[in-house]
Amino acid sequence: MPKLGMEPIRRDALVKATIAEIGRAGSLDVTVSQIAKRAGMSSALAHHYFGGKEQIFLAAMRHTLSLYGASVRGALTVVKTPRDRVEAVIAASFEPGHFRPEVVSAWLNFYVLAQTSDEARRLLRVYQKRLNSNLLAGLRPLLGAEADHAAAGVAAMIDGHYIRRALHEIEEDAEGAADIVVTYLNALLGDQQP
Fold it and tell me: pTM here?
């Protein structure tokens, strides 16, 4: 008979183990057995909770997106100006916990999976729309009609840093990556300060 209350604990362990295993492998070329072993349980239990590897990975990305969303919401609670809002979104995007190698690897594999999985594509679109919306809320008062292009550029730089980090093309830490995106933002805004 299973212990009451263990399901959320086991699900969380499997989600964290999934991110760690993908980070170790650098790809989705991991098995449910490897994930379950890292989580300290049987692969049968992992299958019971999630059904299969894609479902476990999607749960891991939902978890990652949830943490990211909480970071953005937290960062936005203290903003005073539209520019502060954009910089807060950038800073939240590069919090050190989000820029760990295993999380970055999971993001890269998420992009790959979104090419073939409807559910992954839907989750990716939710992330992209929220990122764009948060950036636009700060950029519209500053740039008016140019805000759409600016938001697309800032979002592309954020995502690009994750992709380049996953491919080991850059060595910047989270703070260095954020500084590069803020420098781009400063160039977009010129000398505007609000």
Answer: 0.87
Length of the chain: 194
Q: Which tokens sit at 1? A: 């008979």
* pLDDT, position 3: 60
Q: What backbone torsions phi and psi does residue 61 show, to the nearest 5 degrees? A: -70, -35
The closest alpha carbon to 93, from 124, 116, 71, belongs to 71
Contact 135, 92 (CB under 8 A): no
- Both tokens of 28, joined, read 């989705």
Give the angle 166-91-121 at the CA atoms, nearest 5°: 50
CA–CA gap between residue 178 and residue 186 (Å, rounded): 12
Identify the residue whose tokens are 């939710």. Answer: 126
Write down all domains in the chain, each with its CATH number in brackets. 57-189 (1.10.357.10)
Q: Which residue has the higher pLDDT, 98 or 168?
A: 98
121 contacts 134 by C-beta, under 8 angstroms: no
Query: Is the predicted pLDDT of residue 171 greater than 90, yes or no?
Result: no
